[in-house]
Amino acid sequence: MKTQVAIIGGGPAGLLLSQLLDLQGIESVVLERHSREHVLARIRAGVLEWGSVEVLRNAGVGERMDTEGLLHDGSVIVWSAKHRFLIDTRRYAGRPMMAYGQTNITEDLYAARDAAGGTIIDEANDVTPHDLTGNPYVTYEKDGEQHRLDCNYVAGCDGFHGVSRASIPESILQTYEKDYPFGWLGILSRTPPLPELTYANHERGFALASMRNPMLSRYYVQCPLDDDVDEWPDERFWQELKSRFPEEIAAQIVTGPSIEKSIAPLRSFVAEPMRYGNLFLAGDAAHIVPPTGAKGLNLAISDVFYLSRALTQFYDNGSTDYLDRYSDMALRRVWGAARFSWWLTMLLHRFPDQGAFDHRAQEVELDYIASSEPAARSIAEQYAGLPFEE
Ligand SMILES: Cc1cc2nc3c(=O)[nH]c(=O)nc-3n(C[C@H](O)[C@H](O)[C@H](O)COP(=O)(O)OP(=O)(O)OC[C@H]3O[C@@H](n4cnc5c(N)ncnc54)[C@H](O)[C@@H]3O)c2cc1C
Fold first, then answer.
1. Which domain holds residue 325?
2. Do 331 and 361 reside in the same domain of the chain?
3. Does ligand 1 lie within 6 Å of residue 155's CB atom?
4. Confidence at residue 212, expressed as pLDDT on a 0 to 100 scale
5. Which residues of 238-254 are buried (b: 16+ CB within 10 A; e: fewer)?
6. Res 214 pLDDT > 90
C-alpha cells in the first residue's frame, strides 16, 4: 500500500491530522494499535483553548462542540478557605475557554473521517517505521498478516508510549523530564457541574471541579501515587472533595454515582527535536504536561495545526520551509505550556516535603496574583494559550 503521509496513532492528534490533510487533498493512512471502542472509552482532557476551538471548527468538526460544549470566561482558584480569584481569559486575553471532552472530540473526528472515506486501520500490531532519513515506510501486522505502507512522510502521533519517538536515535534525541510525588484521583459523574471550573489549593491537597457538558462533571483530588481506586468508594471521594473547597462552594457540588474513576500520575516531559528525517512527532509522542494547566490536548492540536500547514505547503508548491521550521516552532509553544503547567502545579499542590514556610509562600503568591493586574494578565494570557505563530 502507498500513501503520502503515514500517521501512527489514532488519538486526537492523529485523527485531526488526517482530517486536516484530507481537506487539502493530501492522502494519509492512520495506523492505530487499539480498537476504536478502546480509544473512545478513554476519559481524558476537557478544556479547550480558543485557538483549539478554531482549529477544530476549521477542520469541519466544530458543530457538536458548538452545541454541547460549555463556554466560560476562565477558571477560578480558591485558597485559604476564603480567597477566590478568576483567571479571566476573556478580560485579559480577549478569549473565552470551551469545556468539551476529548472523548467527544475523538468521536467527532472518527465520524468525519468515516464520512470522507478516510483509511483508519485499527488493531494494527507491531507498527514499525523504517528508513526515516531515506524513503520511509511503515510495517505492521493486522489479523495475522504482515503489511507494508510506503509514504513520503511519517507522522508520529502515537502518544507517550508509542514507537515513533523510540525510532529516533538516542544520540539525536534530548529529553527533559520531571515526575511529581502524587497523582490525581478523578471521577466522572452524570451531575450538573459547578458554574465555573474551580481549582482549590487546600491544606489537605489540591482539588479541581471541572466539567464536560451541562450534565457531566469531572472532579479530581490530589492523592498519594500508590493509592488504589478501590480504596476510594464514591462516598469517601465526595467527602474528601468537599472538604477541600470553601463551604459555600462545597454546598453547590451535586454528588451522584461515579461512572468512571481512575488515578493518573503527573509528569512533565519534553523531547527535542520533534523531527528526525521524514518523521515528525506531534502531541503526547513528543511531550507530556501535568494536567493542571489543561494544556496536553491543546498542545496536540497546535502541533497538528503547524504540521498540517507545513505538509500543505510542501504538497502545494514543493517548499519545505515550514517543515524545516516545524520542530523549533512547535517546541516554542510546547515549552511555554510545559513551564506554565509546571508552575501552576507547584503553586496549587501540597508536596510531601513541603513545610509551613512553603505553604505560606504559595498563599502569598496567590494573594499577589489576585491583587496585581499585571500578574492576573500574565496568568490569563498563558491559560488562554499563546497565539499560533505565522
Ligand atoms: C488520564 C489522563 C487525563 C488527562 N487529562 C487532561 C486534561 O484534563 N487536560 C488536558 O489538556 N490534557 C489531559 N490529558 C492529556 C491529553 O489527554 C493528551 O495530551 C492527549 O490525549 C494527546 O493526544 P495524542 O493524540 O497526542 O495522544 P494519545 O491520546 O495518547 O493518542 C495516541 C494514540 O496512539 C496509539 N498508539 C500508541 N502506540 C502505538 C503504536 N505503537 N502503534 C499504533 N498506535 C499506537 C494509542 O493507542 C493512542 O490511540 C490527560 C491524559 C490522561 C492520560
1. 5-71+97-177+267-348
2. no
3. no
4. 84
5. bebbbbbbbeebbeebe
6. no
